[in-house]
Amino acid sequence: MMKIYGTLLSLCFIFLTSLSAFGFGEADRVVAIVNHEVITKAELDTHSNFLRMQIGEEAWKQFRMSEAKALEALIEDQLILQEARRKGIDVDERSVASRFERIRKGFKTDEEFSAMLSQQGLSIDTLMKRIKEQMLVEEFISREIRSRIFIGPKEVTDFYEDHKEEFSLPERVEIENILVTDKSLAEDIYAKLKLGLDFSAVKENYSEKEGISGVVKKGELRK
Q1: What is the maximum span of the chain, computed from C-alpha positions, in angstroms?
Q2: What is the mean pLDDT of residues 16-42?
Q3: For residue 165, what are the CA distances in angstroms to 42, 72, 161, 204, 212?
């Protein structure tokens, strides 16, 4: 991917490993220079956290993502962003806000969304900035690259057959439960649920404690 973008854009980049000798802190350490634009360790960390937020921890581990891969992706993005700006490509702020809202609504509550941002070390302003940059990259690729590329069905099938393991995830299911210690009460609750009562309402009224909930993989629970 890097070679393709580098060839199409006729751009280059230079890596720097450290400027700590000049008194810079770890966050200010320069990890790369892309056509005279500096990428610091702090920017790399932000980009890594943004990627992790988008694909999730499980996919991050499955695809063996690392700081080195995140840096490679960030450099690719910077190369494209520089060329997009040179060509005057922009994205509508309303579209950026709309994508932000879709991300936010993916969480059950605003508190859960805020907790995720805090966990990943992101602010709303930083997230909006990353979303806009991502959309600029997508717009550039759509205009300048994708329109010139044709991939036939056979190529798609062959690629999938050769990389099946990269597309497979273990069987998963999202669960929620109601925990009670009295067997007869459990049977009564089960009968109510079979009649169509709302699960969340029944849980709120009867569950004595929180159990396992959320997405679990096959084999994580006892038979």
Answers
A1: 73
A2: 71
A3: 33, 22, 9, 41, 29
> Do 28 and 42 touch, CB atoms closer than 8 A?
yes
| 49-58: pLDDT as tens digits | 888 877 777 7
CA distance 95 to 87: 20
Distance CA 10, CA 149 (A): 18
3-state helix, strand, coil in the chain (%, to 5): 60, 10, 30
Q: Is residue 23's pLDDT more than 70?
A: no
What does residue 106 show for φ and ψ, rounded to 5 degrees? Answer: -75, -10
What is d(CA 210, CA 221) in angstroms, rounded to the nearest whole number? 16
Tell me, what DSSP letter sits at residue 147? G
Q: What is the DSSP letter of 181?
A: S
Q: Which residues pair with 62 in a beta bridge?
A: none
Distance CA 137, CA 83 (A): 10
**Closest Cα to residue 6, out of 69, 78, 68?**
78
- Backbone φ and ψ for 40, nearest 5 degrees, come out as -95, 170
Strand ranges, E, within 83-175: 172-175
- CB atoms inside a 10 Å sphere around CB 43: 17
